[in-house]
Amino acid sequence: MRINNKLNIKILDKILKLRYEKQPKLRKIKKKLLSRQIAYKDIIDQESRNYDNDLLDETEKSRWDRQIRHPLINQMKIKNAKIVVFGCGGIGSNVLLGLVYAGVYNFKILDFDKINYSNLNRQTLYTPKDVNNLKIDKAKERLSKINPEVKVDTFNMEIYYPLDQDIYKIEEKNYSKEVLLIDNLIKWADYIVIALDYFGSPYLINDLCIKNKKPFYWGGVNHFLGDLFNYDPNNNSACLRCIFGKTDFINKTQFLRYKTKEDSFKGVNLGTTVIVTGNLISELIIRDICSIKNPFHGNYLIYDAYNFEIINIPIERDSNCICQNLI
């Protein structure tokens, strides 16, 4: 259903009564969900949004017409958003695809891996012709085909977080060359995606985002379960360190703190679960870009593809964690 400024609850009720006259329970739920969106649009600065969208050129207005029609979408903000994606695998490739189709123009992407056939069930940026090529190169190529105006800077490197260091205790002037690069990428970005899980990289990005007061989105998939987490410095939310215990069964250190390819088992990844999880992260980012109410900051979301539901789990903040003491 097209949603516009003239739509109101009374008209909505008439439409739904006719459309779902055989299913009163379905009609009631649809009315509740749509009414909530209509009510929320009243607190959005419509004048500012309309002015911003008028700055788009005619091609952009045509391409994103269906989004611009929605009163909550500010396409100019989406266009100007700056996104860093660490990792162009299962989660990262699907986040990138969702965001470029939504109209994001500015990306910096980092990965060190090459494409292989086992990636192709879930890493939707790539095709069999891309096998043995660097992921960052083919990701940039594909994003540019979807939108020739997109700007993509690539970085071919691995990210390490040495076990004997805590980056939040180190002054910026003493950062290594590699850490300084990561720090500068985070400083540039409006939103950061963590889609790496080796060599302690999630915690390195976690800690630098906290120091720089930048939001990040983390995701992972195993079996039919997709995990998502969104850190927001403005809401004093929990971070990755608040979630996971100090030791892990596999390598006796904190989960994700220092996992290598050698000491980890091959995960079970249903391709469609990975694709949906990546797109859910894209959805959360678009909500934040457009200042749409996001009740999930600091919460752990589980997409249960087996039972077809999303479970929302509030995460208790650790008062001793750096996320509660550095901000």
Characterization of this structure:
Helix content is 39%, strand content 14%. It is of the alpha/beta class and 327 residues long. The protein has two domains: 9-61; 81-324, NAD(P)-binding Rossmann-like Domain (Rossmann fold, 3-Layer(aba) Sandwich). Strands 3-2-1-4-5-6-7-8 form an eight-stranded mixed sheet, with helices on both faces. A hairpin with a 4-residue loop joins strand 7 and strand 8 (309-314). Helix 1 (9-19) packs antiparallel against helix 2 and helix 9 crosses helix 10 (201-212). It starts with 8 loop residues before the first helix and ends in a 13-residue tail after the last strand.
Look at the structure and name the CATH superfamily of the largest domain. Answer: NAD(P)-binding Rossmann-like Domain
Distance between the termini: 43 Å
Strand residues, percent: 5-15%
Q: How many domains comprise the coordinates? A: 2
Shape: globular
Q: Strand count, sense and closure of the main sheet?
A: 8 strands, mixed
Give the overall pLDDT as a whole number: 85
CATH topology of the largest domain: Rossmann fold
CATH class of the largest domain: Alpha Beta
Widest sheet: strand ordering: 3-2-1-4-5-6-7-8
Give the proportion of residues in helices.
25-40%
- In total, how many beta strands? 8
What's the tally of helices?
12
